[in-house]
Amino acid sequence: MKRKFLGVCVLLAFLFGCGTVPIPGPHEEQALNFVVMGDNRPANVFRPEQPYIYHKVVEKTVALDPVLILNTGDLVLGYDAYSQEKADKEFDDFEKATAQIREKDIPLYITMGNHYGYTEFAREAFTKRYKNKQTGTLYYSVDVKNCHFIVLCSELENEASQITGKQLEWLKGDLKRAEGKHIFIILHRPLYPKIKHLKDSLNKYPEKRDELAGLFKQYKVDMVFVGHVHVYNFSVVGGLNQIIAGGSGAPLAGNLNDGAFNHFFHVIVNGDNIDYRLIPLQNEVGLAIQLMKEGRVQGTLSLAEKAVAAFPDHPMPHIIAAAGYKSTGRTLEYNAEIIKLVSILGSEEEVFFRLGEFCLNVKRLDLSDFYLSKALAMDNDSFNVWYHYAQLKTEQKQYPAALEMYKKALPLTVNEHFKQDIRKKIDKIGKLM
Question: pTM for this one?
């Protein structure tokens, strides 16, 4: 009988980092080990770079020297990809952040996430890059030693939130061919969602979901890895094992008790034994943002400085540090951070906008006003600045100014999501005046 071990030492590793996470020793040299990560997309269009924590996930993963990596999907935002150039840039940014994996020639298998389905350009860019080269499809399988890995697609056109049609028929044959091996499945949307996405996962079509689950149980699938929900969760439903591993960078869902912490999985297969090791990661940037919201600036700076040392070319640690130094009057350090940010982001205007956006997010409204006004003086036609300045004025209850700023922002974007959002905000402010 196959034995399963789910190693979940969450609290200590979450608080103190992962320096003591065991790496396979000499007695496991013949074992197969792989990693599961994913849902690492940026938080929003105003922070378009890959999240700080994803860089940390990549670094820790490469150190484990896995034979392959499975990614649960949602690498990029996608919904703002209104041109092929923009879509390509988003995936280029992902690949740049993933360079260590590519340089080590570690095979990386990525299931399609729902964020690539928002525009035809994002879908085309993902399909071109990550479809299987042999089959030309977004669903396929890979054999390594005594393990069989199946990559499914829950985002096929006109088949979202389901595994059906040609893909289901292919899956039935593939599972039959894999009998006797350890079988691992990866797809984006869960069969059994938790915390969020309770109505747009595979349970949207319960009969089809149950048919799929029955198929997995019939062929004794060892584990189904999914994402979509930005948490860690392990469940057993009717004898089927599912791990939600959606914590590699996208905004977390719920709270710590819900599994809302950054993580990835390291899985070691040794004969009939399968060891599932949950690897939690401390996110210095996320913690620093929370401390800044609480007004604990010294603690914020300590974490920001640690993050800067770890990944010196990522903008977010420098943005947090600059805001902290400005708040505490540390002029020399502040000026150095501004210079560094200009070299990373390319212009003073972008630096001041990003600082204004960050200070608005952490409720440092006076500082946000200071930075957004500087950015606006450099570009009076910036949608980003007008949009956030309107939010700032709303926070300050300066409703007439907010209304005018939203009206200035509206014609400056082609993004329908933002157009609808602005119209709703204009209506809401009108009722407050």
Answer: 0.90
